[in-house]
Amino acid sequence: MIGYHANMSKATIAVIAAVSAGAGAAATAAMFSMRKPEPTPTSTARTPSAPLPVPVPPSQVFASPPPTTTPSPKGRVPGTPSAPVDPAGLFEYGFPGPTADLATRQALISSYDRRTRNPHWVAEHITPSSLSIRDGDRKHSAFLEDPAIPDKFQAKLKDYARSGYDRGHQVPAADCKWSQAAMNDTFYLSNMCPQVGEGFNRDYWAHFEDFCRRLTQRYPSVRVVTGPLYLPKRDVEDGKWYVKYEVIGNPPNVAVPTHFYKVIYAEEQAAPGGKVALGAFVLPNAVIPNAKPLSDFEVPLEAVERASGLEFATKLPAARRKRLCAETSCSVMVKEYADRQKAFAKK
Ligand SMILES: *[C@@H]1O[C@H](CO)[C@@H](O)[C@H](O)[C@H]1NC(C)=O
């Protein structure tokens, strides 16, 4: 198992800085400045999660095709009779993918990564009333291989058995007590990642999930997107950056993420169109002492986007964005040991 290092937060910041390296010094400066106390915020102040005014180097822009330097009169349209080759002929045999298996369940929506046998992301929605209904109990749920995923790409129960890792819910079961069927939805392995159990999944990560639920005391509607990351780490020997992660199962099948993210959308109004307090967090898949402040794991949304290859709020204008940790105190509350044992007795 991965141990906790005293320099974990520095290492995490270094990694996040590295993933943002393409954005240049301005973004890095903005990133570090968000750790300082906020100046008196005004409603029009730019929050750190708003798009940064960073010029994007041309090498990073892939949206439009590169200009054709030598326009060929014959063109390069696939299938043009005059071209000597037809790469698109491959598709006669099938399109390679990638395919992101999208599951739309009552409790959650998830996108599955066939290569790592982990989700890319899992999205949930919690409200004060959804959390007030207590019809589901995890003792009536069982972990399930997801039949919606083709068999050869499925995470299997046997991969997790004796791996030393917990089957870590991305959407927590405790957020879906409003019905047994909804709670059952959270038990598909497509909602799981291998997580360090003691000291992380059963402790700090559980307190972090509880933090998300407590946001409903202030916000009428809270959306959370959760998923794994595989972040590079600098090798002490040669100083280069490598991504290293364990793969569990025999034969090896399920990747063990190095980190996890949550992107939190705390909506000020239950109806669409209101202001949204955004929070992005990256935590290592490792033992984290309860005394560690949650704010140490807050990162700019863009850092999660660069690390995951995903985008989370492209349609949310800057004018409607707030920074969650400027609006509310981002800290975990450590529950009683006995409660914790009860909650995780089934792990
Ligand atoms: C929940 O899952 C359990 C175990 O798989 C099953 O026996 C039960 O019928 C399910 N309940 C509902 C309401 O789907």
Structure write-up:
This protein has 347 residues and is an alpha+beta fold. The chain has a single domain, classed as Extracellular Endonuclease, subunit A (Extracellular Endonuclease, Chain A, 3-Layer(aba) Sandwich), CATH 3.40.570.10. 20% of the residues lie in helices and 19% in strands. The protein has ten helices and 13 strands. It has helices spanning 8-19, 25-33, 128-132, 157-160, 180-185, 197-201, 204-214, 301-308, 324-327, 337-343, and strands at 100-104, 109-113, 118-126, 165-169, 192-196, 221-229, 233-234, 241-242, 247-248, 254-255, 259-267, 276-284, 321-323. A seven-stranded mixed sheet has the order 1-2-3-6-11-12-13, sandwiched between helices. It has a two-stranded antiparallel ribbon with strand order 4-5. It has a two-stranded antiparallel sheet with strand order 7-8. A hairpin with a 4-residue loop joins β2 and β3. The two termini are 17 Å apart. Residues 1-8 and 17-75 have low confidence and may be disordered. The structure holds 2-acetamido-2-deoxy-beta-D-glucopyranose. 2-acetamido-2-deoxy-beta-D-glucopyranose binds at residues 140-142, 180-181, 184.
